[in-house]
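User: structure tokens for this one?
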Amino acid sequence: MSAVTEKPSIGGAVEKNNPASVSPATSDREHGQIVDADEDLLGQIGYAQEFRREFTRFSTLSYAISIMGVLGSVSATWSTPLAAGGPATAVWCWFSGSFFSLCIALSIAELVSAFPTSGGMYFVTKHVFPEEIVPVAAWVIGWSNLLGQTAGAASVGYSVGQMFLAMIAMGTVKEDGSLGYTPTSQHIVAASIVVLIITGVVCSFSTKILNNSIRWFAPVNIAASIAITIALLVLTPNKLPASDVFSNVTDGSGWNSKGFSFFLGYLSVAWTMTDYDATAHLSEELHNAAISGPVAIFQAVLVTWVFGVMLNIAFGFCAGDVAATLSSSLGNPAAQVFLNAAGKKAGIAMWFWVVLIQFFTGITAMLADTRTFFALSRDNMFPFSSTFRKMNKTTQTPLYSVWAIVALCCLLNLIALGSTQTINGIFGVTAPAMDCSYVAVIAARMYYAKSHPIKPGPFRLGRLQKPINIIAIAWVCFISVVLFFPPVSPVTATNMNYAVAIAGFIVIFALSWWYMSAKKRYVGPISNIHHD
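Assistant:
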């Protein structure tokens, strides 16, 4: 059934009588009615209900926070801004980059509210592009989003393996400071594959089990972030001066420009704050999806913004000798900070929580990726789509899609055995590929607003929509160029940023497949509701 409610908005007027509107005030005991309204809206969009709707508002928010995994993600990427411009670059890149990320998140949240399906922004192409453009636009955007997510899920698995082995290495520190064990690329790849298989097993569970598990991810993340921040600041004996943490931007890139070195520091926040529509990919498993999903996206970015600044400040004060920290034989500069502050045993105990939270991020990233693959299979995008879109009768989840993505992620990580430069290029395309797929839809929504207006959902930006959309588009155009740039100069085959080549391959691959065969059969997002 369709609910008629007044809808919350951000900067806009209240709108009534929208079928996408489901009252946010509906209590948990009324979930039966919410499911009916959610199913009715999904049916109006064009899809039959196939998943069980088990995710509550709290578990949805926990999922949205966990996909960014602030403690694990900052620890995994902190070395980039630190090397580029020092601790101050890490702090201010996170602070300023989070504002622009919030603009992307708000732009996406508004569209997700109008079309809460597991296809996310890919599905929205059907409603913001002219009909004759929809097939090719959906094809390219779908591939860009999927491959960006898959590279992201693989990279998180790789980082978990790397962090876990850093913890093992931390336990072998000798009295003279040397290590009894140093992680190798072969060991990291093997560990990452084990991690990816475990995340695949978790993502194969029923939605009810996933809901009951994921609801704890964010509380653990937040509590551990606070505890570790306090512990590092208390235990680190010789802290850097505030000037190094807040004002002394250095030129560590070799480009002879502090400004450009500062820009390179945005990689950390860009890699962490992406996959904004991950929550949208769970829309068909959420209660009150048109509201709970978008609100969770918005709130998650705010939480990640605040705690990311807190962690970067703490890491900055505790960085010690920056050159020595960056060259740590542990393989992760943040792990070296923990070891310097707390020693072997306490350092391992603290680092364990970082590894665990990054593992949580891997689960949520894998879950979003598999739901995207399912949604694209539902629209006949791939060979064997009829198999990949099948739902397991016991778990009511798409197990074939889950294990197809797990296999693809494992294959990507195997590339690191032959070339770390290539795998870093693949990982580096994560944020640009996903963010470009988002802003293509956002830009089309603005450009074709008069000829193809959409009916907004309950989460609305109102008069702020255009300026927020423009900021989001401008930011993605800017940051994509920065993320494709070589991180250091002079550029060599070893330090070259191959992400731009990987991105070019994705575009050529998608368009070549389109013109050779896909355009004859693929029509874009299609309904799976069959009427007699």
